[in-house]
Design a protein that fits this description.
188 residues; mainly alpha; Ferritin
C-alpha cells in the first residue's frame, strides 16, 4: 500500500489558514448569541459582527487561493482547537472571559498567518497572509483594549484608563511560536 503524496506547501498553509478562519467565524457567531452579549454592550456586539465578517472574508480568500493552488477547499473549523473552544464557549458567563478566549484565537490566527507568509511560495500568497495577519493582529489589539476596559470596570470606551493606550500593542516584533502546524488544516 502506498501513502498518498504530501500536498504542496501552499495547499497545506492555505487549508490551515481557512480552517483557522472557519473556527474564528464559528466562535464569533456562537459568542454573539451568548446571553451576556445579547443583553450587554452594543460595542461588543458590533465588534463581534465586524470580526465575524472579516473572518468569513478570510476563509473565502483562502479557499479561492486553494482553487488556484490545486487543493481542496477547507470549510471545517480547525480540529486542533475546535473542541476546546466550543467547550469554553459553552460555559462562558462573562465578557472578560470571552475577551480572553477571542484574544487567544486572534493571536493564533495572526501568528499563523505571519509564519505562513514566510513559507508561501508565491508573492501573491505571501501578500495574502501578511494582509490577513495584520487584520488578525488588529482584532487581538482591540480585544486587549476591551479587556483593559473591562478590568477597569468600564463597559465601554467612556472614561478610558491610561493603560488602554498601550494594552493593545504587546509585541514589538510579532511572535510566531504559537502558530499552527502547516498541515493542520489539510483536508483528509
Amino acid at each position: 500500500m502506498t501513502t498518498p503524496p504530501e500536498p504542496p506547501l501552499d495547499v497545506l498553509v492555505l487549508q490551515t489558514g481557512a480552517a483557522l478562519a472557519n473556527l474564528a467565524v464559528e466562535s464569533c457567531t456562537t459568542a454573539a448569541g451568548l446571553p451576556f452579549v445579547v443583553n450587554g454592550s452594543a460595542q461588543l456586539r458590533a465588534l463581534l459582527t465586524r470580526n465575524t465578517d472579516h473572518h468569513r472574508a478570510h476563509a473565502q480568500a483562502f479557499n479561492q487561493a486553494l482553487g488556484t493552488a490545486g487543493g481542496a477547499e477547507q470549510h471545517a473549523p480547525d480540529a486542533r482547537y475546535a473542541g476546546t473552544v466550543r467547550g469554553r464557549l459553552a460555559t462562558m458567563t462573562d465578557p472578560t472571559a470571552l475577551a480572553d478566549l477571542l484574544t487567544e484565537l486572534e493571536d493564533i490566527n495572526a501568528q499563523s498567518c505571519t509564519r505562513f507568509a514566510t513559507l508561501a511560495e508565491s508573492g501573491s500568497l505571501r501578500s495574502l497572509f501578511v494582509n490577513i495577519a495584520s487584520v488578525e493582529a488588529q482584532h487581538a489589539a482591540e480585544l486587549l483594549v476591551l479587556r483593559t476596559l473591562l478590568d477597569g470596570g468600564h463597559a465601554g470606551p467612556s472614561a478610558v484608563p491610561a493603560t488602554a493606550g498601550t494594552a493593545g500593542i504587546p509585541h514589538v516584533v510579532y511572535p510566531t511560536g504559537e502558530s499552527s502546524a502547516i498541515d493542520e488544516g489539510e483536508v483528509r
